[in-house]
Amino acid sequence: MSNSGFFHDEHCFWHSGGLFALTLPVGGWVEPPSGAAHAESPESKRRLKNLVEVSGLGKSLVQRGGEPVSMAQMLKVHTPEYLQRFRQLCANGGGLLDPGAPVGPATYEVARVSAGLVSAAVNQVLQGELDNAYVLSRPPGHHALPDQAMGFCYLNNIAIAIEIAREQFGIERVAVLDWDVHHGNGTQTIYYERDDVLTLSIHQQRAYPRGYTGEHDTGSGAGAGLNVNVPLPPGSGHEAYLHAMQRMVLPALERYRPQLIIVACGYDASGVDPLGRMLLHSDSYRELTRLTREAAERLCDGKLVLVHEGGYAEAYVPFCGLAAIEALSGIRTDVQDPLLAMLESQQPDAQTVAFQKTLIDQLV
After folding, report:
1. Phi and psi dihedrals of 175, rounded to 5?
2. Other Cβ atoms within 10 Å of 139 Cβ, number
3. Which pLDDT band, with edges at 50, 70 and 90, does 33 fall under?
4. Which of 11, 143, 182, 281 is catalytic?
5. Where are the beta strands (DSSP E) in 90-241?
6. What is the mean pLDDT of the chain?
7. How is the chain split into domains, by residue range?
């Protein structure tokens, strides 16, 4: 048995923002869906949890839950006006909290549970109860701003967990690595002028927030040089991401010497995701996690927490997530990725990879 934590809560699967087709509100010319509704449905996460169980990996993980975050804890990151607006809209039955952020009656309470799972995982890793942890959080959080919901995110789960840990443990340097296909704008905004959190984001250029790339946004004030964006062109695959890790991410981590590494772990850069245009596969996430785990072992006694963010291919996210958890725990199961061979065959050719690597090298 490993000493890797796996944090989850059934309540996280019970948030719904209403009737959507992918991300489009049903009505007008948008026909109601016959199956799952909004792209950010519980199914990809529920199926990951189920695959962890049926693979046998769950028996080797330390499975735990958490307590919902309190108002005082949320206020460490979010404004009181925003939290009141969020809570009231849910109490009134739901609606559109902000663009790209529909809520239902349960969303406010479920978001508190999701953030609480992340905080529990961070605290237990810092205390040494666990070597590392994976958090099956939902709703996600990396787009959430202090005063605004965005991109299916309502509370910035990672930032809340960091602020709670700072108060409880006096931690001074945290690195947040975001490999969701969409830019981690919320976390960047919260820590842009601070030197106690290094933020790194590998994302598809101009995807979300719409039109954003971010290579020139490097932090300001005390945070100057501590915000690193690696925007990659659509069609980037396994080799481009590993090159970004070797050339940009790992050197930044080595310079910063964090006491804890948190990964905003999205799977929407896979080659079959409906909201991304990248070409990663399960072995990509296995390798990204392995590299990050080895960095954590060198720099911060292995203190590493992976926090589930995006990923909207319901049938494929479980295989990517399982690969990441296998790499995190050091335990390989018998599960075979049924799409791995196809996605490996669809990787860019050598000329395209060379071009992508040149773009990354220009960012160094």
Report:
1. -110, 135
2. 25
3. confident
4. 143
5. 95-98, 101-103, 132-135, 174-178, 197-204, 227-232
6. 97
7. 4-27+34-361
